[in-house]
């Protein structure tokens, strides 16, 4: 255990650091930035939380005695009527959800084409660029559909992009320096989206309730069995959330262009 008492650590950088069980008392975290950080089970009391922005997976978050998770979900569903479709329970529901994903992403890509192509490689506030976002969705499809559901042990494309905090894994590419043209990545995206289309078009309720066969090879997800439903829900969540992030950042880039 290390203790920092009456210490000045402002502007410090913590990366790949284990801070589980850490205690903060009478500390100033103003303007701190957290990305890819697990705060599960954290307790904050006597805090000042003003002008704070949070993007992430939120559940069982209690503020001043109120579980705000359901309130957030209800408001997001109100703002985005298609959001509820991303929680399907039947094979037909998954087909409708994928119809929605295809439609919404077509509009987002059309907006991106109005930008200077150089801006599509630009990060906004340290987030992935638009092209990197598309590359990550290629990786997500490869992982949860091609590998987990279809059983391909190594479906990776060199342009696929894992999440930043993922440990380096043999055989899985991670090239953050690549700057492929938008059309190159969109061709790759169309191929992966057509794979998902084939899976959901052939999906039955019985298959949806089944489990995948473990893939006997290192990679992501781990070499074990998963509910088919969970694999497809991961893909829908990735598609939905990353499109919203992309729309948010495109709006800022378009305002500057």
Automatic annotation (TrEMBL):
Protein's name according to its UniProt entry: DinB-like domain-containing protein
Domain DinB-like: residue ranges: 102-245
């Amino acid at each position: 255990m290390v203790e920092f008492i009456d210490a000045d650590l402002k502007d410090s950088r913590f990366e790949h650091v284990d801070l589980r069980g850490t205690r903060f008392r009478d500390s100033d975290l103003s303007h701190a930035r957290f990305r890819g950080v697990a705060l599960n089970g954290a307790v904050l009391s006597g805090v000042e939380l003003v002008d704070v922005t949070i993007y992430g997976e939120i559940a069982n978050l209690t503020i001043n005695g109120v579980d705000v998770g359901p309130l957030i979900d209800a408001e997001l569903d109100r703002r985005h009527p298609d959001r509820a479709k991303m929680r399907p329970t039947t094979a037909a529901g998954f087909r409708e959800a994928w119809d929605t994903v295809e439609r919404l992403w077509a509009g987002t890509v059309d907006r991106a084409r109005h930008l200077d192509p150089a801006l599509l490689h630009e990060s906004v506030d340290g987030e992935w660029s638009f092209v990197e976002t598309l590359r990550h969705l290629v990786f997500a499809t490869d992982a949860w559909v091609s590998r987990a559901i279809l059983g391909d042990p190594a479906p990776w494309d060199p342009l696929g992009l894992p999440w930043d905090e993922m440990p380096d894994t043999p055989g899985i590419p991670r090239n953050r320096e690549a700057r492929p043209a938008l059309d190159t990545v969109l061709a790759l995206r169309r191929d992966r989206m057509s794979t998902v289309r084939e899976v959901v078009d052939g999906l039955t309720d019985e298959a949806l309730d089944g489990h995948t066969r473990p893939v006997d090879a290192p990679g992501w997800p781990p070499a074990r069995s998963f509910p088919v439903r969970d694999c497809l829900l991961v893909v829908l969540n990735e598609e939905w959330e990353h499109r919203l992030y992309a729309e948010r950042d495109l709006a800022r880039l378009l305002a500057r262009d």
